[in-house]
From TrEMBL:
Residues 15-29, 60-72 have a biased composition (Basic and acidic residues). This is Uncharacterized protein. Residues 40-50 have a biased composition (Acidic residues). Residues 10-72 are annotated as: Disordered. It comes from the Bacteria.
């Protein structure tokens, strides 16, 4: 498993979003990955999901981050 937050974030995305985010500048990818990590750390609901399925928790956090980004 990669320790690079951007690679981990990209892996958590569905294929369509992975391609879109992968085409963004590295600095923007890093900002999204940082937001994703904060989401994973701060949401208790994701902690519960993480115990059951870490990939599902990561995917849900990634979905939330992208949803917030498109709402701006």
């Amino acid at each position: 498993m990669s320790t690079d937050p951007v690679e981990r974030f990209l892996a958590a995305l569905d294929p369509g979003h992975r391609e879109t985010v992968g085409a963004k500048p590295r600095t923007e990818q890093e900002q999204l990955a940082a937001a994703w990590e904060r989401e994973l750390e701060s949401d208790d609901e994701l902690d519960t999901l993480d115990e059951l399925s870490p990939p599902a928790a990561e995917a849900e956090a990634a979905r939330r981050v992208l949803e917030r980004e498109t709402d701006q």
